[in-house]
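Researcher: Sit down with what I've pasted below and flag anything odd:
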Amino acid sequence: MRKVYVLDTNVLLQDPQAIFSFDEHEVVIPSVVLEEVDSKKRNMDEIGHNARETSRIIDRIRNKGKFYEGVPLPNGGKVRIELNHRSFSKMEDIFPERTNDNRILAVALNLHHEEQKKANPKDVTLVSKDILMRVKADALGLKAEDFLNERAVKEDSIYDGFQEMYIQKEDFDTFFHTGELKLEGKIQEMFYPNEFVLMKNRDHPSQSAIGIVQPEQHKIEQCKFQNEYAWGIKPRNAQQVMAFELLFRQDIPLVTMIGKAGTGKTLLSLAAGLMQVEDLGLYKKMLVARPIVPMGNDIGYLPGEKEEKLKPWMQPIYDNLEFLFDVKKTEELDRILSGIGSIQVEALTYIRGRSIPEQLILIDEAQNLTKHEVKTILTRIGEGSKVILLGDPYQIDHPYLDEYNNGLVHVVEKFKHHPLSGHVKMLKGERSSLAQLAADIL
């Protein structure tokens, strides 16, 4: 049976293509949604971009029919702009304020009551990214759903980047002595390229080893950099060993790491980056950046020059650099960075339009990037560069993102099949026992 879906503004501002995501069903856009989209189209950020794209899509659809009748869509459904059904009579006792959210609720509620009077009523569902909007709809007896089409993964299924596996003693000894273990038959289909395997001796589970999958050679090989030191930093747990392997491998130009605060993502990446840029000369420069949430917002309201304006946003990066350079005062770090010249701390606001060859690019807090923004970054990467994306998907500051649809998780899931990328989920906090406890229970 065909259904009616009433779209909230935030659905279109999250994904302008959402109109085409409801198969053969009817999509209703309340007139107030058009007003809200119009109010955002001058924004010079991701929201503004999506508002303008939504306007263009609706204009193209307009040329194919009349919106008050419903315009057919390629998937068999239709879309219409709802100008009527704005009466508050059925909800004014509960939500009397004439806000835009309540106007959208009124349209959905009146359509629902109209359908109930028909011989074959259609289900009317409000689709919104706003949790409280869905709660209010439920209080009114309306069906309400989140828009899940843009999710990169289902709940609790974000790729970890590693697997645990118990193996026979003979295989364990072979791996220990030869540095590799052949993958035969269908067993290699269990793994993604550059996925790590935490192997344990079946007879003696306390004996373990870490390998990385090389599908083209049909083998698991030992990590080459598990005993590496970088600017005084050495891996302290299994996932940090995996991280170092990815950070130092020249054949893996895209590295993603997710994990809670204190797991060492940023410190390990900065240490590995400094070693490769300053000591080994593998890259001309290291570019370190964090998104100013939301990416694209001007930082002109902050006092001072650009470097002074960036300081509050980039302070976590500077904290890690102070630790690595073993300095006590910020002024010392400023003098060191200005003297080196090969380390650039930048805001992502200015990355669009650039081409970045032979550089190591480190993007912290990448969970606050949208799919469009992370595509913008990765398409800037030039030949000979390596990009590292770090973040915690469960600490989202962006108003339209969650742990399953942000740009970082999108990259993790889309690239896990490709040998040019590697990923690891950091599990154990190493900042302090208190920080680990706080990350777990708060």
